Amino acid sequence: MIDQRPPQVLRWPNWLMLASALAAYCALAVVVTFPLVLHLPSHLPKDLGDPLIAASLLWWNANVLPLTGHWWDGLGFFPAHGMMAFSAHFLGASLIAAPLQWIGLDAITAYNLTFLASFPLSAMAAHALALTLTRRHDAALVCGLAFGFNPFRVAHVEHLELLLAFGMPIALAALHRYLETRQRRWLLVFAGGLIVQALSSSYYALFFTVFFGLWLAWFMRPHAWRDVLAICAAGGSATLVVWPVVAGYAVVHATYNWRRDLAEELLKFSADVSSFVTASPLSALWGWTAPLNGAERQLFPGVTITVVAIAGMAWAIRASRGSERDRFVIVSRMLFATAAAFVVIALAAIRFGPWEIEQGWLRVSVTTPYKPFSVAAALAVLGACSTATVRSAFQKRSPFAFYLVAASVLFMCSLGPQPTLLGERVLYEPPYAWLMRLPFFADSVRVPARFAMLGLLALSVAASLAFHRLSRPETRRVALVVVVIGILFDGWMRGLPMAAVPRSVYTIPQGERPAAVLELPLGDVWRDTAAIYRATLHGVRAVNGYNGFEPIYYQVLRRGLADHDPTILDALASSGPILIAADHAADPGGRTAAFLAAHPRLTRLHDDGTWTLYWLSRDDQAPLASRCEAEPIAIAAASDADGEIGVVALTDRNPGTRWIVAPQENADGEVVFDLGGLHHACEIDLSMGAAAVYHPGSIEVATSTDALTWERAFTGQMAGAALRAALADPRDSRFTVPLQGRAARFVRLRADYAGEQYPWAIADVVVR
Fold it and tell me: In sequence order, what are the residues at sequence separation of 6 or more whose Cβ sits closer than 8 angstroms to the Cβ of residue 395?
């Protein structure tokens, strides 16, 4: 295979060449993203969603000591705890952005400079990796451009954490240098690369464990156990450094009971085979392919590096044919032939549908095409591994062969647990399904398609190694120009979209400082990110929030405010005084203004024509709470409008089982509990489980001795009680309703459902 010469100790290259390469990458980043460089303090790339929240969090990281309790709570989602673990924390990006803010730059400029730096940093790190393997700057330039300016980055210009991918090539370069020199300093560089990458992108840090495992399996000789231990110890030390961040995320996610749903998220954000020919609509040359797949599924690696890598593979296969006859050639041909037969079987199932052949004791049936396709793929892989070319490459530890194999595996992982082609499943139990049996992969990964960045790194290195071997001295410069132009065309943007940063700011009144600021309306992505950004300007935590995970209490809050339920403000104010800023432009009918004006504890402070400010004093009134110490009363039966319902699901103390009824126009939701005899019932405890947003908008509770005559025990709006319950326990949100201690056999709950959009759910009931 390519580049089989004995390893040589590399004298670290001319610093002028490295400086020239870095300058070229920096200039190219400015040109590719132009005219962003002209609007550093006023605009953000793409939109005001992820970039604006990232800029705000970078400000937070620069002004608050990381990993403290105050830092974890973040500057949004008041009064919840742990906002910084709701999605990316940007500590890695802050290694660049924080010093820029410390010298006086604003948060937006710091974000934009960090965004611009992500391109040359990734390119330069890949350049160093290829330079380590090829000893040539021209081949390294191919790798640097392919990794630093690839189409995948174009598809993710709004995701800063995905653009900061330079830690991985640094770690790989350090591993190769350690194998060449056995100098321990390269283990320190390896650990440093891992730490920077883990702090920059948790996705890449987790996915890199697969890349790292492949590297160890390929390059480590059986007797090199000391090297394996040393490398793993360096990796383990990096893990210890970032473990406080991992532990913090684990605690917060367990508190909110967050899990990734296979159908809802993993499959939605896994790549399709067609994703590899789908580019971003921002791609100047290949944007026409974008309709094939949506965001997160546009993984086009570029024609140029793919062609160069395939040409290198073809050359290596051809070069290996001159060797002596291989004893496994018959085995490999039989495996390939059998694989082809299974492909035919799968195609027959697609063309003619499920079929079955039964002849005596022999019975063959095909019900789903993806199973024979899976067998065909497995046989083809075994056939390839049995060829002399692959076996020789493994024996010689060929870097080119390794990075080709790694690219194949990593791109395969981006297809997720159920690979599809144009929406139709094509494989059973792919590599990603195996990964889901490991810690973190099963419940922490939302977007398997992001494995593509690691695949692009491997493919970029393979292309640089192929270029190094295939280009002849007399044509090397011409070949370099052609390849460079091809890479730039593949990754060129049609024009970077930019969004102006919101500048409408209000002033926090002097006097008592609020615990938080609530901007209305709440719940729109663009308004919520703007509210969090304004928190960096006035320095008060925002009630508004936006991030990858959304706690259930925030859904309750959004619903309560949309319904203009005054109890939602009371519940919010129980955590401290709130300054409310209402946007005039978003309230054309004046409904929000009327809602706020009617609240008894709201004081109107100021109106500047754009914002009206209100002061909501702290609510020290205790919520509806348990005042009963009696034992629970056994519920004998329960019924709703459709008849009898199961009591077990409502009394098993399991928040995962529930009674639920969908809203109906001009109808009330009703459920009646039979206590089996007369009891002096003093309260009823209702659990909404993990779905507090499915609370009744308003509820009437009544008791009866005969189910004919009813006495009202309680009536009221419930958004505030639901908010308090969701904040107290997101996994099992409970509130208590008094029953006045009357003698009763039946307890009736009735929710006003006219005009409601949410179902009503009860996970558990306790009557005392």
Answer: none
DSSP 26-88: HHHHHHHTTTGGGGTTTEEES-SSHHHHHHHHHHHHHHS-TTSHHHHH-SSSTT-S-GGGSS-
Instruction: Please state, in angstroms and rounded to a whole number, the distance separating the CA atoms of residues 298 and 293.
Output: 6
Task: Report helix angle 137-148 to 107-134, nearest 10.
Answer: 140
Q: What is the DSSP string of 629-684?
A: -SPPBPP-EEEETTEEE-SHHHHS--TTS-EEE---TT-EEEEEEEEEEEEEEEEE
- Dihedral sign from CA coordinates of 115, 116, 120, 121: negative
**Euclidean distance between CA atoms 267 and 561, whole angstroms:** 33
- Paired tokens of 658: 């529930």
- In this predicted structure, what is the pLDDT of residue 360? 62
Instruction: Give per-residue pLDDT as tens, 15-66.
Output: 788 889 999 999 999 999 999 999 999 999 999 999 999 999 999 999 999 9
303, 488 in Cβ contact below 8 A?
Answer: no
Q: In this structure, are residues 688 and 695 in contact, taking their beta carbons and an 8 Å threshold?
A: yes
Instruction: Give pLDDT tens digits for 537-590.
Output: 999 999 999 988 889 999 999 999 999 999 999 999 999 999 999 998 888 888
Please tell me the distance from the alpha carbon of residue 380 to that of residue 432, in angstroms, as a whole number.
Answer: 19
Structure tokens at 554: 């925030």
Radius of gyration of the chain (CA): 31
Closest-CA residue to 485 (of 135, 146, 139): 146
- Tell me how far apart the alpha carbons of residues 657 and 762 are, in angstroms, rounded to a whole number: 9
Which residue numbers in the chain have pLDDT < 70?
1-13, 262, 321-327, 351-367, 621-627, 629, 663-668, 753-756
Q: What is the largest CA-CA distance in the chain?
A: 101
Report the candidate in 364, 372, 338, 369 with the shortest Cα–Cα distance to residue 351: 369
Give residues with Cβ within 8 angstroms of 377, minimum separation 6: 339, 427
